[in-house]
Design a protein that fits this description.
The chain has seven helices and no strands. With 152 residues, it is mainly alpha-helical. Helix 1 runs antiparallel to helix 3, helix 1 packs parallel to helix 4 and helix 3 runs antiparallel to helix 4.
């Protein structure tokens, strides 16, 4: 298991506990409107889940984990059981919210635009546009190897 997998799991656990603390008072209260619940979800839950996501190196498995958590939370907010077999797109439409992948892309594009507009002397911009001073790529297809394993 990669260290980023452990970080993602820890982040989901932390966010899940925050979501659970709001369960009795907010999610299960039928007198509160859905748009209010979704606004609180965005502010209190998604902000913890996606904190710093602009700089994450994302793999498909991470996006899948985050999306599963996101959809589980939305289904609990809307009171949909998995036995109802309602598609995820309908859950998103009911809550008038975008998917987790769209949240991630929006945040990363916002950060990229911020870096592009920075002064040339700023470190994030220099790293963003930087190139290697020495070294070269080998010819042909790159060798497949496990992450973290010594190159050989």
């Amino acid at each position: 298991m990669c260290s980023s997998d452990i970080d993602f799991s820890a982040r989901i656990v932390k966010t899940s506990s925050r979501f659970g603390r709001l369960s009795k008072r907010l999610w299960n209260d039928h007198s509160i409107q859905l748009d209010t619940k979704v606004a609180v979800y965005k502010a209190a839950v998604l902000s913890v889940l996606l904190f710093g996501c602009e700089s994450w190196t994302l793999y498909r498995r991470h996006i899948r984990k985050l999306n599963q958590f996101h959809m589980r939370c939305l289904q609990q907010i809307v009171h949909i059981k998995w036995q109802d077999k309602i598609p995820n797109t309908e859950d998103l439409q009911r809550c008038q919210i975008i998917s987790i992948e769209a949240f991630l892309l929006t945040a990363q594009l916002r950060w990229t635009g911020h870096v592009v507009r920075m002064d040339n002397s700023r470190l994030p911009r220099m790293i963003f546009y930087g190139q290697l001073q020495q070294g070269e790529c080998s010819r042909g297809r790159q060798r497949k190897r496990y992450k973290g394993r010594a190159q050989g």
